[in-house]
Every structure is written in structure tokens, then in C-alpha cells.
Specification:
The complex is a heterodimer.
Chain A lengths: L1 E5 L3 H9 L4 E4 L17 H13 L3 E6 L8 H13 L4 E4 L2 H10 L5 E3 L8 H11 L3 E3 L6 H10 L3 E9 L10 H6 L3 H4 L8 E6 L2 E6 L2 E6 L31 E3 L4 H7 L3 E4 L6 H20 L8 H9 L6 E2 L9
Parallel strand pairs in A: 1-2, 1-12, 2-3, 3-4, 4-5, 5-6, 6-7, 7-12, 11-13
Antiparallel strand pairs in A: 7-11, 8-9, 9-10
Chain B lengths: L12 E4 L8 H11 L6 E4 L12 H13 L3 E5 L7 H11 L5 E4 L2 H9 L4 E3 L8 H9 L2 E5 L6 H9 L6 E14 L4 H5 L18 E4 L5 E6 L2 E9 L4 H6 L4 E4 L6 H13 L18 E2 L15
Parallel strand pairs in B: 1-2, 1-11, 2-3, 3-4, 4-5, 5-6, 6-7, 7-11, 10-12
Antiparallel strand pairs in B: 7-10, 8-9, 9-10
Helix pairs in contact in B: 3-4
The chains are: A alpha/beta, B alpha/beta.
Chain lengths: 332, 307
């Protein structure tokens, strides 16, 4: 099983490589990828440096071009595909049908992975992308329970990658418009969810309020830790309770304890979310997961997630807590 | 094929989208008996949100489709938007191979099945068609009509119209609470403090979904099982002439719990007399909440642009 780690910039790429990632994934400095944040991502030269660094240490580099171009922006996505191909990345992570069509015709030897933003939740949907564009791997949205992942892998004609750790999308990826409903910018169209430029923190009396384009997402007392105002993790009035995490609370996905099952299911890679996080974060998470995967490979039967690993991952999580998310039926 | 410049009476058709909520069988049957008498040209039928909702059996949906066809409508069977279980794929496969009615694919699994069956198909708003390249590729595979993603602006739609392949019709979500997201989690069950697997069909208690307000009391979202809708109702009533100018073929009205007949009637008047468009607020009294139209103008979906 491969460990795929986030590289928001060159220092993070090096941190992931140095701490045992089998592959890293990155994006260009524009809206062609789903972490379109200020100060993040790669120029061509930085990517070239990154590829050289990674290759020298046996690590592969994957390039995410996983947002949805509209007609006026199309040349930018086409150029991103051409740049990544020219720089000889090991694979493209793509979501849009038009982009896939272009990439597989223009660069037939370039390996394509279906991004989680492609929103394929069944082997039938994956087959579409395999038959039409020859994708070699699909990344599963975070909506399937573990037995469903197992069945999907059995029936899939391509490799399957799943999310292992990091920020938790509560909604099926690639079809969530909560962010554009409030801000006009969504992961699909802009490459960011709840973009920072729309975030306002306001202190009123004893409380701290977080707003997204004016909409009150949460309100914190002095004793509470404030979280980034992601719409699906705010507190609202659901008609039963006046202030409740109606959708989800701030938490991170952590599937470390499912490693033996994911391996047995035939999942080929686990992805660590977090291109927007610091190099120190990437180093820490990569180190823990490398150790865990190695331990699981050595002895899957007796594998147990070590308490110190879980503590370390929890300390790096949103709200300092983790969940198995949809893998566990009870979460649903 | 393309009637983009024709501006005669009824050059734009009206569609009734699938009912998003869980209604008991009597309510659904009564709703469609009435719909058969409304001036809509196309009716989309079926459960698209949750496979546990089984008010009507597949055969009953097809009987409704036949009844609507008798009434002069095009009846289309819509597939589930978020597929998780193998059993859901089986049901989808049978629906795609029904042999009589067109199918609206709300997920790429359905597109794949219809493509393998070599059937012409329609895609719903959850299938990501954002650019002409995608539209062309799907057209080669049998796409007959596409419903644009709700977040596409009129400007982007104009680009799509400009280069759309011959024979492909464009449908736009023109009225209703916006479908914004789907999840593995059932939010209605969660609000009631029960698990998804033992949900006791609590969404039967919320025939128009469950409203979520911000802690300032502002209506914000609407929970509909595993789906999240906007609390506000999107309306292009005053933009019908603009949609006709863009060569949009079909306007979709999403059913609401009350007053859908009045909504259809207002859109029918608007398309019949494009020279005298109705006031944007003409339907406000019939909406379950506020009105919004931001997406059409390339703004946040919740925004309301007034003339």
C-alpha cells in the first residue's frame, strides 16, 4: 500500500519525501486545482526542483488538475495539462471530463487518476472514466462504508485510492455547492471551499463570531476554541436545538485503525489531505503513517494503531478530534 | 434542430423536476394527477435522493409516466443522485433498461449504464458539465439534453450555448430550492437523534424538508434526508425572456409542497408573453422562504439581484 502525501509547496514536498511518502501530490499556482490558496502551490521551476528532489529519493510526483473549467478559463486548464506533461509528472489527478478527454488524446502515455472531485462512488461510474479515458486509478469520495469500499475494489477495473487522514468533507466531493451558495466560489469552480477572503472574525461582548460572507457560521464563548468557518461544520438552529452542529462538528478523518482492512480489501494507496498545512504538519503526519503502514505490512493480523500515533494525529486534527467518517456506518 | 432564434409562443418548454421530498404515495399520486393538467411539457419522475424512500414501486412510477404521456407530456425517469450500495446499482440498471421511457442520469454510473445500452440520455444538474468539451464528448455518447449545474452563470451558459453540439438541448434549473449537496450522512435522521439505518422514515414528518437557521435566526439551509437544499427559493421568473434569448430549450421547475400549480402557471404566462415579463416578486407569496437568484448573475447563490 502506497502512502500519498500533500505538497502545498517545496518545503512540504521535501518534508513528505524525507519522512517516507511513496508519492506526493501538488498543484499549480492557479484555480486549476482544488487547493487554490494564496501563497500555496508551484511554479514550473519549483515543480522541476521538487520532481528532481523526489525522484532522487524514489518518490513519485502527482499533479492535481482537479477543478472544472468553464469556457472562458479553458486555456488555463489545457496549459496546466501541457505543463505537467512537459515536466514529466508521474500522473495527473483529474476530475473534469473535458480535461480528461484532452489529456488522454494529447498525452496518451500520461497516467490519469480520477480525482475525488470526479465524484465517482461506484464501480459503474469508475468504469465510465476507464473506458472513455483509460484512467488507471480512482480516488473514492468519503461516502462509502468499509464493506462498500471492499465490494467496489473487487469489481473495479482500476486501482483504488482512499483518504486516510485530514480534513473531512462531509458532502460527496465534486458535487458540493455550499461554498458557492454563500460566497460565489466553490471547489468545482474556484478550487477552494469557504475561501479565506470571505471570512470575518468579530468580537461581540463575550463572544467571538465567525462569518462567511456575512453569514454567521458559529459563535464561541471565551472557553471555546474557534474553528475555521467551513459551512458544514458550523453551529445552527435545526428546529430541535438552538445551537447544534446540524451537519458535522470540526473534526478530522483518521482511518489509521482500519489499515489492515483497507489493505486486505486491496486498496492500493491512502491519501493524506492537507496541501494547505505547514511542512511541519506534513512531516509529522507522514512519519506516523509511514510507521503504521510498515507495521501493518509486517504483521497485518496483529496490527494495532499505537496510542502514541493516535495521540499525535489527534493533536494535529481539527477540533483535536478524529472520526472514521462514513467508513463507519454509525457516523452516517 | 436548434430553435435558438425562434421567439414564437411557447418556444421554450417547461419541465417539472423530480419531487425532492419524501411524500406518502397518496400525495405523490394526487400531485401527478394534477400535474397532468398543468401546462408543463416534460415531467421527471422518481426518487432521486434516498433509496430507502419507497413510496412508489418502480412499476408505479412507470404507470405514472404512462399516464403523463397520455396527457401529452414527455415523461422521464430520473435516477438516484448518490449511489453507495450494490442494490442501488441494480435498481438503477433496471430503470435504465426500462425499454420505454427516457432516463435522466443524475450520476455517472447511470451515464455509463445508458451508454452501454446505447440509449439516448438526459443528464441532471448533479452531473458536472461545466464546459463545451464535456458537453461535446457526452453528446457523442448519446446525450440528448443536459440540465446545467445550478452554479453556472448566465454568462457561462451563453458560452455553452454558443458551442453546443447540434441536437443537444439545454435545460436550466429555473425555480425551486437549490440542491446544494449530498452526503453519506442522513441529516434528517441526525436532527431527530436516530441513526440512518434506523431512521424510521423521519423525513415523512418533513414534507418540505427541515429548515436550518443561523443562530441569528436567518433561514439558511434546508435538510432533506441526505441532501441539503438552500432555504431560499431560486427563481428566474423575470428572466424567462433572457433565457429565451440564450436559446435555452427547457426551464425546470422543482416541485414544492404547496402552490406548484401557481408557479407553473406564472412561468407559463411568462413564456407565452415574453414581451411582458412578470415582476420578479410575483411568486414570493407562494415560496416557502425568501427568494434568491445570485447564481444566474455569477454571484453567490444566496444573493438576490433586483432590477
Amino acid at each position: 500500500m502506497q502512502l500519498l502525501c500533500p505538497a502545498g509547496n517545496l518545503p512540504s514536498l521535501k518534508a513528505a519525501v524525507d519522512n517516507g511518502a511513496d508519492a506526493v501530490y501538488m498543484g499549480f499556482k492557479d484555480d486549476t486545482n482544488a487547493r487554490h490558496f494564496a501563497g500555496l502551490n508551484f511554479t514550473d521551476q519549483r515543480l522541476l526542483d521538487g520532481i528532481e528532489y523526489a525522484r532522487g529519493r524514489g518518490t513519485r510526483v502527482l499533479c492535481a488538475i482537479n477543478t472544472y473549467p468553464q469556457a472562458s478559463g479553458w486555456p488555463r486548464w489545457q496549459a496546466a495539462v501541457d505543463r505537467a506533461a512537459a515536466l514529466q509528472v508521474d500522473a495527473l489527478i483529474v476530475a473534469d471530463i473535458g480535461v480528461m478527454d484532452y489529456a488522454c488524446r494529447r498525452w496518451p502515455d500520461l497516467r490519469l487518476h480520477l480525482s475525488v472531485q470526479g465524484s465517482a462512488t461506484s464501480h459503474e461510474a469508475i468504469r465510465f472514466y476507464h473506458q472513455q479515458f483509460g484512467i488507471r486509478r480512482a480516488v473514492l469520495p468519503r461516502v462509502l462504508a468499509l464493506p462498500q469500499v471492499r465490494r467496489l475494489v473487487e469489481r473495479s477495473e482500476v486501482e483504488i485510492e482512499v483518504f486516510g487522514f485530514g480534513s473531512l468533507c462531509v458532502m460527496v466531493e465534486g458535487r458540493c455547492m455550499l461554498s458557492s451558495y454563500v460566497t460565489g466560489q466553490s471547489p468545482n469552480t474556484f478550487g477552494a471551499c469557504s475561501p479565506g477572503s470571505f471570512v470575518r472574525w468579530e468580537t461581540t461582548g463575550q463572544s467571538l463570531e465567525s462569518r462567511l460572507n456575512g453569514v454567521l457560521i458559529d459563535r464561541y464563548s471565551e472557553q471555546e476554541n474557534a474553528a475555521y468557518p467551513t459551512i458544514c461544520k458550523g453551529r445552527y438552529d435545526d428546529g430541535v436545538q438552538p445551537q447544534v452542529y446540524a451537519l458535522e462538528q470540526p473534526t478530522s478523518l483518521n482511518t489509521l485503525e482500519l489499515l489492515p482492512e483497507l489493505m486486505a480489501a486491496g486498496v492500493v494507496a491512502v491519501k493524506i489531505e492537507g496541501r494547505q498545512r505547514s511542512p511541519a504538519y506534513v512531516a509529522q503526519v507522514t512519519r506516523v503513517w509511514r510507521a503504521a503502514i510498515d507495521a501493518c505490512l509486517r504483521d497485518p493480523v496483529r496490527f494495532a494503531a499505537r496510542p502514541d500515533w493516535l495521540r499525535e494525529l489527534a493533536s494535529l486534527s481539527e477540533g483535536a478530534q478524529t472520526t472514521l467518517g462514513a467508513y463507519q456506518r454509525a457516523w452516517q | 434542430m436548434n430553435e435558438t432564434t425562434k421567439k414564437t409562443d411557447l418556444s421554450i418548454r417547461l419541465a417539472l423536476g423530480p419531487v425532492p421530498y419524501y411524500w406518502p404515495p397518496e400525495r405523490l399520486l394526487e400531485f401527478y394527477q394534477q400535474a397532468a393538467t398543468w401546462p408543463v411539457d416534460i415531467v421527471y419522475l422518481g426518487e432521486t435522493v434516498c433509496s430507502k424512500r419507497r413510496s412508489l414501486r418502480p412499476g408505479q412510477w412507470q404507470e405514472l409516466a404512462a399516464m403523463l404521456e397520455q396527457a401529452g407530456k414527455q415523461a422521464v425517469l430520473s435516477t438516484l443522485a448518490l449511489v453507495e450500495a450494490e442494490s442501488e446499482l441494480g435498481a438503477m440498471r433496471r430503470l435504465c433498461a426500462n425499454g420505454r421511457f427516457r432516463v435522466e442520469a443524475n450520476d455517472m454510473a447511470a451515464v455509463q449504464m445508458l451508454t452501454e445500452l446505447k440509449l439516448a440520455f438526459i443528464t441532471g444538474p448533479g452531473v458536472n458539465i461545466y464546459n463545451p468539451q464535456t458537453l461535446s464528448l457526452l453528446a457523442r455518447l448519446g446525450l440528448q439534453r443536459w440540465v446545467a449545474p445550478v452554479e453556472l452563470s448566465s454568462r457561462s451558459l451563453a458560452d455553452m450555448q454558443h458551442s453546443r453540439p447540434a441536437g443537444v438541448e439545454t435545460e436550466v434549473f429555473a425555480y425551486g430550492r437549490l440542491p446544494l449537496a449530498w452526503s453519506a450522512r442522513c441529516f434528517t435522521a441526525r436532527a431527530h437523534g436516530v441513526g440512518k439505518d434506523d431512521c424510521e422514515f423521519r423525513c415523512l414528518d418533513d414534507p418540505q424538508g427541515r429548515l436550518i437557521r443561523t443562530r441569528e435566526g436567518e433561514p439558511f439551509l434546508n435538510l432533506n434526508g441526505i441532501q441539503i437544499e438552500s432555504a431560499s427559493t431560486f427563481s428566474l421568473l423575470d428572466q424567462v425572456p433572457a433565457a429565451m434569448d440564450l436559446g435555452i430549450d427547457v426551464l425546470r421547475i422543482t416541485p414544492q409542497t404547496e402552490h406548484t400549480a401557481e408557479v407553473v402557471a406564472a412561468f407559463h404566462r411568462a413564456r407565452s408573453e415574453p414581451g411582458a415579463p412578470p415582476a420578479a416578486d410575483a411568486l414570493d407569496a407562494y415560496m416557502p422562504g425568501d427568494r434568491c437568484n445570485g447564481y444566474w448573475y455569477g454571484e453567490p447563490g444566496m444573493a438576490l439581484r433586483t432590477a
